[in-house]
Design a protein that fits this description.
This protein is mainly β. The protein is about 0% helix and about 60% strand. It is built from no helices and eleven strands. A hairpin with a 4-residue loop joins strand 7 and strand 8 (about 80-85).
């Protein structure tokens, strides 16, 4: 059974940092596109950051609202994706989800989410 489990969320003051982890089990996601999304109360789900592959080369990309503050990375050996979040703002408050295997316009696998709350 394939599972994605997020961790690392919590409460942090504005300007602080958090690192989220997304641990995959049940299969390897080496060379597979993965991404972070977030959803705040009353808002639509928003793309945050993602990784894609071309052969052995990994590419990263970010939503406009987090560029320059967040960094996505992968540890292939640990089958884990990370999201380093710096200079956090209250508007970053949301449930953060990881997703894996982008096919036909959507991701096949999703985690259960981890809450990030940024106080002002």
């Amino acid at each position: 059974q394939v599972q994605l489990v997020e961790s690392g969320g919590g409460l942090v003051q504005a300007g602080g940092s958090l690192r989220l982890s997304c641990a995959a089990s049940g299969r390897t996601f080496s060379g597979v596109a993965m991404a972070w999304f977030r959803q705040a109360p009353g808002k639509e789900r928003e793309f945050v950051a993602g990784v894609s592959w071309s052969g052995s080369a990994m590419f990263t990309y970010y939503g406009d609202s987090v560029k320059g503050r967040f960094t996505v990375s992968r540890d292939v050996a640990k089958n884990t994706m990370y999201l380093q979040m710096n200079s956090l703002k209250p508007e970053d408050t949301a449930v953060y989800y990881c997703a894996a295997e982008y096919r036909s316009g959507s991701y096949n696998y999703w985690g259960q989410g981890t809450q990030v709350t940024v106080s002002s």
